[in-house]
Amino acid sequence: METSDVKIALKKPIFPVSPALQKYLRTYQREARLPISYEDLLLFNESYPIMDKYGKDSLWEGPIYANDRIEELHNGLKIIYANLKASGNLRIVQHKYIDKIEYCTFGNTHPFRIRIVNRLNDVYDYFYVKRADASRIYGLELEEILSPNQVNYLVDRETLIEEHIAGIPGDVFAKSYLQNPEYNPTRIAKEFVKFNERCLIMLLGDMRAYNFVMQVTPDFDDIQFRIRAIDFDQQFYEGNIKVYLPQFFKENYPYVKLGMEHLTDKTYLQYQQEEKSSILHRVRSERHRLTDLRDVSNTETLSSAENIESLKNGMAAYFNDRNYLECKTMTDIIELNIKNIIRQVKL
Questions:
Q1: Whole-model pTM?
Q2: Please, which domain of life does this record's source organism belong to (predicted)?
Q3: Per-residue model confidence (pLDDT) at position 110
Q4: For helices 185-202 and 265-285, what crossing angle results, to 10°?
């Protein structure tokens, strides 16, 4: 495993949700009619910067809304939360209130982060309101189908609602938790190998440490780790294969170093194979949904011809497989990845 300084386009275009994708979302219960849209939340008068606990700019802002709009916004956001968490059952928000609305000025989708609090016990939760981007939706769907993680989101025309994914940000974990003597470094390295493999197969790009979280679960005899992606903006857009391999980002060097120190070539290959076997199992159980997703995405323009040409050449060289040169779309590349897994696991 190695790292390098990978270049990524700072501004990927926002791809609209097509009628075909909207139909797919309706089929798989991802579509909703919501009382508040992303554009509604943009109508604030002014904002103030939000500082982190160290006094540095967090790149989030606190929007200030007109007094006569606050009640409408808060009621609408509670209904959205009920739709996201309980299929619209409003009883779950009976004792909840909207505590914060925060706006991020960094990134492609400029999300709003909503904090909702239970007034009976002060337990809080977060969810996000974003501008709907077809790339991101395909990333969320592939995460649902091919990864061991479930994702919860809703789409209403140009508005995307996402559940908060809990965990320790990858950069924070590397800085403050990686040397914890109670943590088995081999288990962490193993999880990073699996995550690296999964990202390449799914063509999920830009998994720098601050775009994933580490979930830590105590078990009866040890502590388990799982890396989860939290940003899906760079789903099969870029043409550089290294964008889809987290090992090449300098921000991830602590995890790469851990693998070099605690894994052998044999165990590295073993963990790659384990992840491929898990993906194959999920492909078989979700084959109809995966086929529907393929059929929709293959008809859309989700990257440039130059990026597709560059990536298929990079994949052909990386895997020493000229079949990649026949791919016409990013979806074709993912489909060939999956077909190769089927062949390899059967061997």
A1: 0.93
A2: Bacteria
A3: 87
A4: 50
